[in-house]
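Module 6 notes. Inverse folding takes a fixed backbone as the condition and produces residue identities as the prediction. Think of it as a translation problem where the source language is geometry and the target language is the twenty amino acids. Below is one complete input and output pair. Work through it position by position during the lab.
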């Protein structure tokens, strides 16, 4: 069971499955994609209207379709983890937001009311997180990881931040495989059914062993990098060459996001 979960998690974390597809976003320069999808993400964060968020949702789904990313695959990646957690975080808004009551929950002498305004706020918060996660997934699903790292360097992000992302991504698969081998070794030595407590003890020991191995592996890799002249800079063989269509794509995304933000500003001003 745990081995199947690790393999499923590895498949979810593998980001370059669709980078070679002949879709729309795959043809756009990596830096332009990073700026464009960041603009969509920031627009979602600022938006307070369900209509603005729905417009961004349509843009994300359209870009996914044009980039030949299966909609079901994108929905599984985007919906199963962070948005569900965001919905759990937003659930108190159902009860603490004043407004028109739609339901009552009696807990002994305590009466909790669910309001329409609370449902609206919780829905907008969850929808906003979904769009942000979907925009990030579009970036990483249509762009090679080395190109994302190079684009971050072109934007002037701190080197330590870029190096942490690069090393973390590479080590994820290393330790998934290490954990999977430990599980296979354990199963090959198990001749009878174990109790739940024994199984939990094995999982605890496995994670503690992985933690020690991660620390030791990190020290060895860093020493090897220093021995080969590592100075903090990330070197790649890919070059982000910009085309006229990249500028048109960036202009189109910025125009749409600017229009959405203008509508939000006018709405907040009472127009």
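Target side of the pair, the amino acids:
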């Amino acid at each position: 069971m745990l081995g199947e979960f690790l393999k499923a998690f590895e498949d979810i974390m593998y980001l370059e499955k669709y980078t070679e597809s002949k879709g729309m976003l795959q043809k756009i320069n990596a830096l332009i994609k990073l700026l464009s999808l960041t603009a969509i993400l920031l627009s979602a964060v600022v938006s307070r209207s369900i209509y603005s968020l729905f417009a961004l949702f349509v843009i994300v789904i359209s870009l996914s379709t044009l980039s030949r990313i299966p909609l079901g695959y994108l929905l599984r990646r985007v919906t199963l983890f962070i948005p569900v957690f965001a919905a759990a975080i937003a659930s108190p808004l159902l009860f603490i937001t004043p407004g028109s009551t739609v339901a009552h929950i009696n807990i002994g002498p305590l009466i909790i009311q669910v309001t329409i305004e609370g449902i609206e706020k919780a829905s907008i918060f969850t929808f906003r997180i979904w769009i942000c996660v979907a925009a990030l997934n579009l970036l990483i699903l249509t762009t090679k990881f080395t190109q994302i790292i190079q684009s971050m360097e072109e934007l002037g992000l701190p080197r330590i931040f870029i190096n942490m992302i690069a090393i973390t991504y590479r080590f994820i698969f290393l330790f998934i495989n290490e954990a999977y081998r430990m599980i296979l070794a354990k199963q090959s030595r198990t001749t009878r059914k174990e109790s739940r407590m024994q199984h939990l003890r094995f999982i605890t020991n496995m994670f503690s062993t992985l933690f020690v191995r991660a620390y030791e592996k990190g020290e060895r890799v860093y020493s090897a990098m220093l021995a080969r002249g590592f100075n903090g800079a990330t070197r790649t063989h890919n070059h982000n060459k910009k085309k006229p269509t990249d500028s048109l794509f960036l202009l189109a995304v910025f125009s749409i996001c600017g229009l959405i933000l203008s509508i939000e500003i006018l709405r907040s001003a009472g127009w």
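Reference fact for the lab report: The radius of gyration is 23 Å.
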